[in-house]
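Researcher: Next entry: Nucleoside ABC transporter membrane protein (Paracidovorax wautersii).
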Amino acid sequence: MTEATLIPDAAPKAPARRQPLASRRYTLEIRQQMSMPRQALVLGLAVLAGLAISGLILVAAGVPAGELFNEFIVTTLFDLQSLQAVLFQAAPLIMIGLAASIAFRARFWNLGLEGQMIWGAIGATAVSLHEIGPPALRLPLMAIAALAGGLLWALGPALLKLRLGVNEIISTLMLNYIASNFLLHLVYGAWKDPKDSFPYSPQFRSFERLPEFFGPSGMAVLLALLAMALAWWFVQASRAGLYLRFVNASPRVADAVGVPVRAIILGTVLGSGALAGLGGFLVAAGQEGRLTQAFYQGYGFSGILIAFLARNHPVAATVVAALVATLFVAGRNLQVFYQIPFSMVQLIQAIVVVCVASSDFFIRHRLRRVAAD
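Model: Predicted structure:
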């Protein structure tokens, strides 16, 4: 009998034994791609985690746990006066968030949003003080002057970067200080209100204020939504937006394949400055009704926060701006009813940003279980 006949042809295989825990190990590897729904799920979970941590901090600060939902959702969004306050705050935030988003898409870190806001408001106020144009056209002329003011203030850092290689983070930040000090020079000097000598400009006339369209903030929100539609078209549907994607991915490769990199960056930065200038116009002609010395404070950080959370997408930036405005209004309610300092609202923003930034790790990486040798 041969050796082959001694071994059955269909010998039963032993069942696979599970590896002991000690023989298993995990490796961290870069994820090639994650679908958009899964990315949205990860980001949503990160935001919820940030809000949960913030809720615990507020409870520790003295806010009743049962009142958190009521304060942030019911009182803020379902009360007509609070909802109008949210929309009132959201309109300039949308403009600033869009301005930051499109600039960041061009890899231009525009941190001069507040300076561009200031010059936008200065341009609009100059038209009002010098009575340029007939009353029927005064408001559109103020908007155009604001657009031009923000655009021209962004032109300098853009040319410095493209021609001389100057870091735009430094140049835009330094120009913020120049703009803010020039604003103080105006409101404490030639543009001081002669009626009461307080450091702000004379009040705008009724035809120089944004009209009340579906409420006091209706026209401002309408302009912000129009800006969002134009930004979405520019980013997603235009040829320049297609070029912008190449520039965002790799400027050197884009230049090598014939994309006009300098022109795309310059045009995008000028558009960013124009949107920030319009944001200053919305605050001056809408919220304040005049040029004030501190109307711009906080908008620069908020714009960067909105662009970061929205991942530079115009529609997402609009949604995030509305959420940030809701957080601001809810924070003011907490200040009034629970004596919570406004720094607590800023802390909540920081927590949400950290959680969202951490979610990028899970989007770009994954754990894979492998057998030990």
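Model: Note for the record: Residues 1-8 have pLDDT under 50 and may be disordered.
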